[in-house]
């Protein structure tokens, strides 16, 4: 049965209405079409290997809680390796897609050997008992959907509460790239033709973004244009078929260390690109491992 947090339990600070709307869209739009989400991130694999290796090392016989589990890109491989995974997300369509994929695997005679249990909840308010899980993971930038340090700290405190003493918390978020954040917000970048996985239509993907240094939030827009001419070229002045907002708060390395420390964690490592690299200007992803002390 799906575990659920109390409705309306999310306590977000009072924000100006336009910003509140942008943040709501920025944490919802991108996750309403899981088929498209899975298509866009189909080649992402380094992180899956990293989390599976960590679970193999630290979570055999213990429960794994995945925050922002989405459509199961990481949860399903973990369950395939025999783990019991609690897949927590605030978006029902993403969790529904995860279970469709599990059913398909079972129907194809390849059921996962572990288990996946859905938890429809917010990662700042975990509907789980104290000290009930051995490993908590938060893959692929999901913590960047917490939009100020208070929200991040609330989440870290919840993770600390539900972890067994000696348990591990591991996550990854982008390393802020100041040059990229300052790109021209009016240009379209990453222009890529593709065939829509659900509609079969020829489309063009592109993005741009605007960074607010005060809130540290990067407001990304993902545009989907119809490729009517079939030439993969955007037509100036034409409105896109769909615009998706994605809001990512940039989290600087020292802020992470400070908040993890305040929540009570001991930092084990904070390295780059899932390769144990030190955090230099060329690194895209900061991957963090920390532990809840035994006493
Ligand atoms: C980038 S996706 C990652 C999904 C999956 N872990 C993966 O690696 O593909 C981020 C996920 O976090 C979820 N999410 C964002 N904010 C959340 C919150 N406050 N509580 C729970 N889930 C949240 C989104 O719904 C989305 O499924």
From TrEMBL:
Keywords: Methyltransferase, Transferase
Gene Ontology molecular function terms on file: methyltransferase activity
Biological processes, Gene Ontology terms: methylation
UniProt xrefs under InterPro entries: Methyltransf_25, SAM-dependent_MTases_sf
Domain of life: Bacteria
Enzyme Commission number: 2.1.1.-
Keyword Nucleotide-binding: no
Xref: Gene3D superfamilies: Vaccinia Virus protein VP39
Name recorded for this polypeptide: Putative S-adenosylmethionine-dependent methyltransferase
